[in-house]
Amino acid sequence: MTDVLSKEQRRFCMSRIRDKNTKPEIIVRRLVRQLGIGYRVHVKDLPGKPDLVFRKHKKIIFVHGCFWHMHACKYGRAVPKTNAEFWQTKRLSNKLRDSKNRKELKKLGWDVLVVWECQTRNPSLILKKIHRFFPILFSPETFR
Ligand SMILES: [Zn+2]
User: Residue 141 falls within a domain, yes or no?
Assistant: First the structure.
């Protein structure tokens, strides 16, 4: 029993490492950079170590993997065949932690946007979300 648990825990730790600097995150960062908005990544002193932090604008973007953060899409709804209960517990605790972090950030005056992994397959959708998230930067007046 101890063996099984430590194996599972190790695998979970590895999955957490892979959660950083993932491909979806890099897609979002590249889009934001192209728009010329300055940001910092994985800011440790904020709840949930947000993926992208825009201090000047008091805005935060989280890029969530659908499976790990239980998005309501087909990837987020997938149930692993082995150790189902273990993964379900882990994923559920991710989801609860996410919503707690979002609430804390909002209380601290931050605007929070969540971009899902499955959405990063559609760059024009992401671009639209980012534009909507920074209305000041992209209002018609900006382009006059
Ligand atoms: Zn999804």
Answer: no
Q: What is the pTM of this model?
A: 0.81
Cα distance between residue 118 and residue 104, in whole Å: 26
Query: 143 is written with which tokens?
Result: 């382009």
Strand ranges, E, within the chain: 40-41, 52-54, 59-64, 111-116
Ligand 1 center–CA 64 separation, angstroms:
8
Q: How many domains does the chain have?
A: 1
Cα 1 to middle of ligand 1, angstroms:
33
Q: Given this model, what pLDDT does residue 17 score?
A: 47
At residue 99, the 3 state secondary structure works out as helix
143: in domain: no
> pLDDT value at position 35?
86
Domain of residue 56, CATH code: 3.40.960.10
Where does the pLDDT of residue 91 fall: very low under 50, low under 70, confident under 90, or very high at 90 and above?
very high
* Domain residue limits at 83: 2-136
- 71 alpha carbon to ligand 1 midpoint, in Å? 5
Interval between CA 120 and ligand 1 midpoint (Å): 9
| Distance (Å) from CA 42 to ligand 1 centroid | 21
Taking the centre of ligand 1 as the mean of its atom positions, its distance from the CA of residue 116, in whole angstroms, is 5
